[in-house]
Specification:
single chain, globular, FAD binding, FAD, 12 helices, FAD/NAD(P)-binding domain, UbiH/UbiF family hydroxylase
């Protein structure tokens, strides 16, 4: 029975990045999971902190040519409600950055990670399914569908919302659904996007355009399920016009490049993010609507935290309580992000006038208050930085008074 330091189950973006990062720390890693059966047409916006981590893993040079920078993030009220919010522009230059992050197409990004995994000496890519787990011994045992068994000191579940690893660890989840479906597509447009991502807030959810290289953009259009079904049934010229109209023609003529994909929206949070010899990353631990570019950035912070927690490889075996310590480390970040995204999404759906008023007032304050907007931008790019900035500011004020 072959033994590894760490077995990562799930070979999507989150699992592949975690496996590469752990292998770079010197551990012998098995990355387990079949190749995807279909191409993922979505894109992922990675923020500055995540980009810095890709650079640390020597991945950025290959990824960068696929990307477009996000220099400005703009929120527009696209509703017809009585109380409408003002337009808010978040500019990376306000916090000393050239870009908040970069938008990356998922499919070629995963190809780059697949190639890197094959070139990493301490990482074995096992392209089969894990069918059973035994966590009762001093090692985690994983049974594969080719009849082999492997063992590992640490088992990382990166195997999605219905995670078998999570179930094997007997970790319960809370789930909830939204009356929404995300329609995802890429489109070309006449006028340049100027590295600006525009998020229209509508009564059914966000309509979010994110730059791609050239005069191209990706789109996540959150709609009611019946409206999403009607949108998917449109021919490409009609769909192109519908997208242009929804965008108020700010980029001129729009041409949708291929048939859209759709994904029903729901949320999920594990009751624990680790337990014993098990750690959960990505959508095995948390999932929520595609708002504010939080999903994969949160998953990458899972991987960063796990690498930081276990440190560089030594001669000792990994201890059996890593999952419990990982849970403590990740809990504040995951719960706060999940709650904030859920609250924002529900505020868009609410027809209750006081809720609409609170949302409009909040965006008005952000539009008018530069320091508060800067704090929010720093928190979005580098989680925890806003709290540190407030602490430093208070210390400075107290020091001046003492002097």
């Amino acid at each position: 029975m072959e033994h590894y330091d760490i077995a990562v189950v799930g070979a999507g973006l989150a699992g592949s990045l975690a496996a590469i990062a752990l292998a770079e720390a010197g551990y012998r890693v098995a990355l387990i999971g079949p190749e995807p059966v279909s191409s993922d047409g979505r894109t992922t916006a990675l923020m500055d902190q995540s980009i810095e981590y890709l650079k640390k893993l020597s991945l950025w040079d290959k990824v960068q040519p696929l990307t477009a920078p996000l220099s400005t993030m703009r929120i527009l009220d696209g509703t017809n409600r009585l109380l409408r919010a003002p337009t808010v522009n978040f500019r990376a230059s306000e916090v000393g950055l050239a870009a908040f992050g970069y938008n990356i197409p998922n499919a070629p990004f995963l190809d780059i990670l697949r190639q890197r995994a094959s070139e990493t000496a301490t990482l074995d890519r096992l392209t089969m399914s894990a069918v059973d787990f035994d966590l009762s011994d001093e090692k985690a045992r994983v049974s594969l569908d080719d009849g082999r068994d492997i063992t590992a000191d640490l088992l990382v579940g990166a195997d999605g919302r219905r995670s078998p690893v999570r179930e094997a660890a007997k970790i319960a989840v809370s789930t909830w659904s939204y009356p929404q479906t995300a329609v995802v597509l890429n489109f070309a447009h006449e006028l340049p996007h100027q590295d600006t991502s525009t998020e229209f807030h509508t009564e059914s959810g966000p309509f979010t355009q994110v730059p791609l290289p050239g005069n191209r953009s990706s789109l996540v259009w959150v709609r009611k399920p019946e409206d999403a079904a009607n949108t998917l049934a449109l021919d490409l010229p009609t769909l192109s016009r519908a997208v242009e109209d929804r965008m108020q023609s700010i980029f001129g003529k729009v041409t949708v490049e291929a048939a859209p994909q759709s994904f029903p929206l729901s949320g999920m949070s594990a009751h624990r993010f680790g337990k014993g010899r098990v750690a959960l990353v990505g959508e095995a631990a948390h999932a929520f609507p595609p708002i504010g570019a939080q999903g994969l950035n949160l998953s990458l912070r899972d991987a960063m935290t796990l690498v930081d927690l276990i440190g560089a490889k030594t001669d000792d075996n990994l201890p059996g309580d890593i999952g419990d310590r990982f849970d403590s480390r990740r809990r504040p970040d995951i719960l706060s992000r999940t709650a904030s995204v859920d609250l924002l999404n529900r505020s868009l759906l609410s027809g209750f006038l006081p809720i609409q008023a609170l949302r409009a007032v909040g965006l008005h304050i952000l539009s008018a208050a530069g320091p508060l907007r800067s704090l929010l931008m720093r928190e979005g790019v580098h989680p925890g930085s806003a709290l540190h900035a407030l602490k430093d500011g208070l210390r400075e004020k107290i020091g001046r008074k003492s002097a």
